[in-house]
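Reopening this ticket.

The earlier resolution said the output was attached, but the attachment link was broken on my side. Pasting everything inline this time so it's all in one place.
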Amino acid sequence: MNVWKLTAAGNLVMAEEDLVPEEGKRRVRVTKVFVTHEDALLCRGKRKIRYPLIPGRFATGVISDEGSALFPKGTRVLLHSYLPALDTGTQKRSFTEDDFRILGKTCDGFLRDFVYAGEDEMTLLPDSVNDEKALLLYHIALAQATVDALDVKRGEHIAVIGGDMLGFFVARLLIYRQAAPILIDSRRDRLDFARMRGVYYTSPTDGSLMGLVGTVTGGRLADGVVFVTDSGETDVSLAVSVCAQDKHLVFCGTGEDAFPLDIASVIKKRLSVHGVSDGTENLETAINLVANKSVDLSSFRFLTFRPDKMVSLLSELAEHPDRPSDEICIINLL
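Inline output:
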């Protein structure tokens, strides 16, 4: 089978390898892989990883062997991006990210023709959710986990700092919960995109922000705040500034960028701080939201590329982080 392996920073090569069967696991033909800006940074050497590594965190596939009645041959699946770490019994375990595996980052990902996966390592896809939409399910599930962490109530005003795809999904799910999100971002194109798709309150990260929040909330601060760590916004102090006392502050994302946080201000406001990085438990909910069109994905543009365009695509994503957030870049492996 073909695999695309990162052997060093900036060196992604295609090779042929034999796929070794794994007991108790199913053979899955990888069909499509969602390539993100985070993947591009990883391939450029901007993320700490162990070489060699097969990239690709978000993927769909088709069961290619005979098996159980629940997962018959030909079944379309979403392959899970986060898995429990393998416990060999030979290494001391600690409460770090080593307790789980991130496909395409801490272990081999999905840029290959086939993988072996357990039936608990993939989720069935209904006919109403095509492969392109399925590739966004992890972000929707992560947004759902973020909204759950807020313990949001009807009518509350929630500030969402970061208007990338994840921030947009958080805002839309807040509206679904009958809350009022205020989407905040330094990029006007993201704010325009969200506003045209039903996010009524938006604000740039400039001197007008606090005034707008006060106007929207009737002179109060936000009833909760979400800071999207992957969005490119770096002024984390805004999250504390716009948040009212005794509320929830949630940091969500899939990346690993570090941000300085003024703990004294958090303590002074008695904020409950949460970190959300995995929404696997919410995948079924995400599927229902998409299938029922409670989350509308029709505004996103799905751009499909052949495998031979992979290197140039990753280079383009790395060099242009300001690409439109509605562009979804997909490698078609079939």
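Reporter confirms the inline version is readable. The mean pLDDT is 92. Residues 31 and 333 are 5 Å apart (CA to CA).
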